[in-house]
Amino acid sequence: MAPSTPTRSEHDVLVIGGGVAGLTLALHVAETRRVTLVRPASDDQGASRWAQGGIAAVLSPQDDFEAHVADTLVAGDGLCDERAVRFTVEQGPAAIEWLLSLGVPFTRDDSPNASYPYHLTREGGHGARRIIHAEDATGRAVLDTLKAHVQAHPAITIRDDLVAIGLLADAEKHCRGALCLDERSQPLALQASDTVLATGGASGVYRHTTSPHPASGEGMIMAAELGAELMNLEFQQFHPTCLYDPDGPPFLISEAVRGEGGRLYSTDGRRFMLALDERAELAPRDIVARAIDAEMQRTDSPHVWLDVTHLGEAAIRHHFPTIHSHCLSRGLDITRQPIPVVPAAHYSCGGIATDLDGSSSVPHLYAIGEVACTGLHGANRMASNSLLECLVYARSCAAKLALSHAPAMAPLPAGGVGGRKVDAQRIQQWRKEMRDIMSRHVAIVRRDAGLDAAASELSELSREVEAVLASAAPSAALASLWHAVRLARLTVLAARQRRESRGLHFNPDCQQHLSPQPSRLHLDDLSHPA
């Protein structure tokens, strides 16, 4: 881009992203260091807010760590890092206690035979009730509570007027903060001693998602630009049950609906899960999503039905007040009618490869939450382990940063941004094209020929976008698109290298298991794909 020198400012710990992971980290780090939190208003509509189901943790006396570990390993289909699984599970109860101490309004269990003060539900893949929740809007309750504490903390500065478009590096290739744009698209270099990415996943590279403002892998590519290793990008989870309403915004129908007894039917009235898996509707998400996809193709229907009417109106209103209310607002009474549902891109199991303290392969750069890949999820994330991961790794990363000695701010190379503005409609069209390619060829079921076509089509799209970058003025939309296109290309490369069907990556051309090894990629792999 044409040069113009950005304004610079210095910071101690810079956190990019204000969902559950970013807010949790900020609160813990602020006990020992000063924090600058780049948290655009759109973070309130990101993945954290739409996490309806809850947080998985061993809380009941009838449950134990070994059972939670075993369930997670099964869901991960042979690709979990058992060390990460055990670390996460064992840290879970303390993380929940911390949230309770902040006042998160989890739903209580007032029944006389309750073994734990709060209601625990069960979701797909779990062998026990271990999901603590705040009715059916857990993400919103946790996010709002954390945000209130962050806003009140004297050691945390919130910048809601900035969007990060890249990371800064010194001569030794250590991360030294981020390049941001303000509301007028003016560049600002936030130099920092330590930088933490909590920017979310990459479901936004697909057409249908469960979030109105999904991330598109921006943080992953920003880290990769500095040399960070990316891992397991091919494992993109599709939530089996998103409300089917082509004319309305995305809305997730929580896994807990099936956990409490919801039944799936094809549009011709067949309860199809019974014949496919002994766990029926409580099978892991990849199995359920593929089954729904197959039924939609068999019946040539754009959706299937999720029915809870047999639970009764009182139980539905009690367990799912948010879902009930939202569906009513869109003309659907779920106490009397089945819910039309369709799979939608939901969660990225892959991301920036990190240690158990959030450290990436780039010094002074950390990643937590969905943007990171710790090895916890393997080839498929189990329900409600995501918010658990956000909490556990935010806390472990904060402990690492508390012991870190802030280095002297090294001089950064001079540089700048500027140039001609790119038409917003053109950027939107490019993004639509990318999402269509990914949804057509790299979604729930992938085939060799489709992956080859996606690689070719995305390569051509990448060349088109790159051709305008050198002379383009900076904009958040253009930066996000450029990050997303490259993340999409790396996802296709990972899927082509994986080939075998495992977990969320299902390729009918190679259904057998071959090698339970994580995939590892760097940005320069796009220059010489296998």
UniProtKB/TrEMBL annotation:
Keyword annotations of the record: FAD, Flavoprotein, Oxidoreductase, Pyridine nucleotide biosynthesis
Biased composition (Polar residues): 509-518
Domain Fumarate reductase/succinate dehydrogenase flavoprotein-like C-terminal: 431-512
Pathway the protein takes part in: Cofactor biosynthesis; NAD(+) biosynthesis; iminoaspartate from L-aspartate (oxidase route): step 1/1
Enzyme type, top EC level: oxidoreductase
Catalytic activities: L-aspartate + O2 = iminosuccinate + H2O2
Region (Disordered): 504-530
Subcellular location per the Swiss-Prot or TrEMBL entry: Cytoplasm
EC number: 1.4.3.16
Principal subcellular localisation of the protein: cytoplasm
Alphabetized InterPro entries for the sequence: FAD-dep_OxRdtase_2_FAD-bd (IPR003953), FAD/NAD-bd_sf (IPR036188), Fum_R/Succ_DH_flav-like_C_sf (IPR037099), Fum_Rdtase/Succ_DH_flav-like_C (IPR015939), NadB (IPR005288), Succ_DH/fumarate_Rdtase_cat_sf (IPR027477)
Residue ranges of coiled coil: none
MF-aspect GO terms: L-aspartate oxidase activity
Pfam family of the protein (one): FAD_binding_2
Cofactor requirement: FAD
Highest taxon in the source lineage: Bacteria
Function: Catalyzes the oxidation of L-aspartate to iminoaspartate.
Annotated family: Belongs to the FAD-dependent oxidoreductase 2 family. NadB subfamily.
Protein name: L-aspartate oxidase
Organism listed in the record: Billgrantia bachuensis
Gene transcribed to yield this protein: nadB
